[in-house]
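Exercise: predict the fold of this chain.
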Amino acid sequence: MLRGSRASLDLQPVEHERANTMRAMPTESHALAMQNPEIKGLAQIEHGNEVEDLGWNEPKENIAAPLVGGLENEELWLLIRRFNKESIARSWSQAQH
C-alpha cells in the first residue's frame, strides 16, 4: 500500500499513440519502400503470388538491368553486401557479450 503523498497521485499509465502497422505510421525508410516509383526495375514489377527467380546466381551479363529502378545492379549488390556485412558484424558482436 502506498503511504503519504504518493497515495493521492494518479498512477494510471499514460497512453501513447502508436502505429500497429507500417501503413498506419511507417518509418521514413518504409515510407520510401512503399512508394510506387516512376522507374521500376525487374524486382519492383508485379509478379503475382509467386516469387520470381531474378537471376541472382547468374553471371551479371545474364541478369535483367536494372533490378531496382534508378539503381545499377552493381550498386544494388554493393548495398546488399554492406548490409550483410553490418548484420553479421552486429550479430557476432552480440554473441560475444
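Check your answer against the key: Helices lie at 28-34, 73-96.
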